[in-house]
Write a structure and sequence with these properties.
The protein is mainly beta. The protein contains one helix and eleven strands; from the N terminus they run αβββββββββββ. It has a single domain, classed as Immunoglobulin-like (Sandwich). It is found in: Secreted.
């Protein structure tokens, strides 16, 4: 199953080798699933250093403990207790995210989403909160916190 985690990204129709590292995560209220692992493109230190003007792919492997028909992704940066939304290109987790809905109970999935780091962001250490929500039950499939550093 680790092989699946490390070999799935295709950009511009060409397979690109991307280094992944295991980064520290904290569960922040997963109710409808369990987080198995997380990987971030071009991450070789912890916390991951995210360069301004770049886009990073976050890959979260998880297992829902209920059937899920529809899901939405919410991403925040937390700095000094303040939650600021991070815009992502596709909040519908069932579209362009490496998973298809409906999701089956007890089956492992790897959710893949791009997080653009805007040039106007300050150089700062921040905690990213990533929440994948079951839109029918209004409950978190997974919620994770991971520290990152915006640089550049």
């Amino acid at each position: 199953n680790n092989m699946k985690l490390y070999s799935f990204l295709i950009l511009a129709g060409v397979a690109i080798s991307i280094a992944h590292c295991k980064i520290s995560i904290k569960d922040c209220g997963s109710k409808c699933g369990k987080i198995d692992s997380i990987a971030v493109t071009d991450c070789n230190t912890s916390p991951c250093k995210l360069n301004k003007g770049e886009t990073y792919t976050f890959n979260v492997t998880f297992t829902p403990n209920v059937a899920v028909n529809a899901a939405k992704s919410f991403v925040y940066g937390i700095l000094d207790g303040l939650k600021v939304p991070f815009p992502i290109s596709q909040p519908n987790a069932c579209v362009d995210s490496n998973i298809n809905c409906p999701m089956s109970k007890g089956t492992s999935y790897t959710y893949s989403a791009k997080l653009p780091i805007k040039s106007l962001y300050p150089d700062v250490k921040v905690v990213v909160e990533w929440n994948l929500e079951d839109t029918e039950k209004n409950e978190s499939i997974f919620c994770l916190l991971t520290p990152v550093e915006i640089v550049g």
